[in-house]
Structures are given as C-alpha cells and as structure tokens.
Design goal:
By secondary structure, this protein is of the alpha+beta class. The protein has twelve helices and 18 strands. Strands 1, 2, 3, 4, 5 and 6 form a six-stranded antiparallel β-sheet that branches.
Length: 542
Amino acid sequence: MSTQLLPDGAALAPVDVGQIFELLPDAWLILDERRCVVTANDAYLRLMSCDLDALRGRFVHDINQFSSKEPRDEWRHWLDAVLLRLVPGQFELSQPLRYDIAPNGQLEAHYWRVRAAILQDGPHGRLYGLHVQDVTDNVEASARDQRERAKLRSQARLRQVLVEEANQQLRTQQERFQQALAFASVGAWELDTGAGTFVCTDQFKALLGLPPFATLTEARLFEESIDIEHRARVREALAHAAAGEAAVEVDFRVTWPNRRRRWILLRAGRGAAASEEESAGTSIVGLALDITTRKESELEHRAIADAEKKARQQSEEATRAMDHFVTTISHELRSPLGAIMSWATLLQRSVDAPHTARAGTVIERNARQLAHMVDDLLDSGAIATGKLSIEPVPVDLAALAGNVAEDMRMSFEDKGLKLVTDELESCVVMADENRMRQVIWNLLTNAAKFCAEGGVTVAVRAVGEQAEVSVSDTGCGIAPEALDRIFERFHQEGRSARASGLGLGLWLVRNIVTLHGGSIHAESEGRDRGATFRVRLPLYRR
C-alpha cells in the first residue's frame, strides 16, 4: 500500500499494488532468488488451471510437470541461463518454447513466450517476474504457412516436370502420326482424350461426311456423326485403346448430312509415345476405312439366316404343338366315345329298366363332356384368330357363381368333395354372362380334377374398385416354378389319371378374362398344399 500527493499537496487515495497485480490481463509468475514461487496473478492461475496454494513456495521447475522430458529440459536450461545473467532494469524474451499443460485432465500441446525481468533487488533479497504468453495459435499458423509454401514449391516443380514430359511425348507422337498420314487411301487420325480434339486427314473427315475445313472433336463425332445405337460400343472400344490393353477394332454406322448411311471400320491403339511410367490414355491413334459394301452384304446374309432360324423354330414348335394336340385330343375323345359305344351296345341288348336308365345317364354325361371339348376347341380357334367376341351387360358375379356351383354340386358330391359357397358378396360387373359362366365352370372343373379329397371354396367379394372371384381347393397344389406355365395352351401341370382334358381350360379362362379388361393369377404354397385362382374385374358403377 502507498500514498501519492497531487501538485497542490492534496493526497490521493492509497494505491494497492497487490490488487493491481491481480487485475493484470497477462499471466505473471513471481519467483524469489531461490527460484521458488512467491505468488501468481489470477490470469496465470486460470491459464494453468491451478490454485495459488498449490504453487506458493515450490521450486519453479517442480510445478506443471505435464510435458515430456525434452521440453522440460529446454525450459529449465533457458530459465536458469536467463536468471543468472539478468541485471536490474533489463528483461529477456524467449523464443517460442514447447510446454504441454493439462487444463481439463487431458494433455494439450502449447507453445509459450516468456519475458523475464528483475522486479526487486535490495537488502531483503531479489524478486524475478516472469510474464507468460500463450503463442500456440501463432506457432501453428506459422507452421501451416511453411507447409503451404513448401507444397506450392513442390507443385510448381511438378508442373514443370509434367510440361517437359508432355512436350517430349507430343513430339514423339507427332512423328508417329506423320507415318499414319502416309496411308492416303484411308483416314488417319489422332485423338487427344484429355482435350477431346482430333488431328486427322481430310480422308477421315470425308468418311464421316464432313468437309476438309470442318473442325472435328470427340463430342461432334459421337453426337453428330455416329448413329446413336453404335455410340456406346465405339466409346467402349476407345476406352480400351486408351488404357493400352491392346489394339482394338470396331465398326459403326454414320449418317451423312445428305442422309446417306455408311459403315466405317475403326482401328485404334494407344499413342506410340506412351511408356509404362506415363499415364494411360493421353492419346489414341488409328485408321478408318469404308466397309459399307461388305457390311451390307454381311447384314443381308445375317438377316436371311435369322429368318430361316426363326422359321425353323416356329415350324418345330408348330409341329410339336400339333403332335401334342393330336395325341391329347385322341386320348380325351376316345374315353367318352368308348363309354358311349359300350353303354349303347348294352342298351341294345338289355331291356332291364335299371340298366336302361343308367345307360342313358352315362351316355348323356359323356356326350356332354364331348360337347364341352368341342366347344373348347371352337373357342380356342376363335381366340387364336381374334374372332371371339363378348356382349357385356350388368352381371352379378355372386348370383352367377352361386348358380354355377349349384349346377355342379352333385358332381362334386359324387366325387366325395365338399363345395363351399358361404362368401358370395353381391358385385355387379359389365360382362358377357355366358362367358363368365364358362370362366367359373372351368375354374371349378379344374379344381375338382386335382382335388382327391377335402373340398373347394368359391367366394365373391369387392376389393377396392374391383370384384374378385376366387376358387380355392385342397388338392395337389402347384409347384412355384409352374405357376407361370399353367395358363399356357395345351399345358397340363401335374397330370395324372384323374386329370383329364385338353389343357385348354385355364388358357380359355385367361383370354376371356383379358377380353373383359380383367386379370387372373394363381397362388399355391407348393405340392399337396392346394391352390387358389383369383379373377378380378372392374366393378360396374351405375
């Protein structure tokens, strides 16, 4: 504490030196002549994340021991040397010194500049003041600047080397290109893939339908000259040539400005000046020639061969289909015809009433089966020739499905099958009633064929804006890989002794449903897991 006087003799308020020391914004550490800590201001304590009691009286080199040995030794050497040669009235400033701290328990690298001075030198001993500044940001910025300058110097030298190498490569390639120009009867060219520009002969431009003064670029070649369907192949060929894998050959068609079309054969390879140390694809050189006559002849022969191959395949398929059809229809017609003939003979020989009634029933059933086969064949022919027509009227699918089911219920019961029709929701659609009756009848007949026990369920419900007719059975099921084939003409999946027919039922169903603007698909969890067929038609809105 000290008191000062004003010029007129008045006294100022006492000055508290200690308070001023604590308020200094810079960090200060005070040492005695034994280099032990006397005090430190608040700025120093905040900077080092410590309290004064932990520092006071301790040897300066024993505090803040977080750094490795090398930085601590450097700090010790500098401070000891400075304190020995300091004289009153002078100070010394250090270079940036590395000294790590741990403010939050985690070690951090920091750089410091320390100003040392003698604050008191008298009979009561000497006091040293250490003004501590954190210059980490400045040091790191300086290091970044040095690295950037070194990087720029390296890049400048690299660019110079690359330019020298490119110039040498260009001179060598130009010599090779001059050799290609000697082929006056064909087009010679060189493509700089980096710049996308061509150096070429007038003959090469003429092959593309361009005048001698035209400027040719890679973009113009692909966007204007080469026909669009050939561009991908030519790009791929040039990419292989640029990679230096091997010489490539590709043909393509061009359309001249006068709309004439020509075929060009292009031979290309990587520029001869390139070496293994150089990057691939800097340039591509090659030749081009007109192969229009040869290509047109080749395409003509290929078209003839393809047509002949297709005709043979169609003939073989038609022959196989006809053989299959004849075999199938012969077998299927023979069964009801044989039954009719046998029972007709029995009817002629017997006058017994029960036998006569049974014979009539069998003859009627087999005649109906023959009529159904004939109808399927006629419908098949009409569909194949596009002559099958429909006359749509409002039809309630639930009522129609119920009627068909009742007509067929006795035949199901004769086979020991249960026919369930509990879920018939009224759904009106625009459809040909006879054709939709045929669809439901065929689906039920198909379900009965492949169902030895259990039953068949018919349901009609509205699904969104569509009406759905579903026929589910507990029969032998359908293999997943066969689901797409069961709607093919004459196809019978999993045919067995109980599965008779011409293989036209599901094919007819699909075509009739399609004519109504609807869809059909089959579902099955696999063999012996049953199957479900779903037909969907647009609902009729009055």
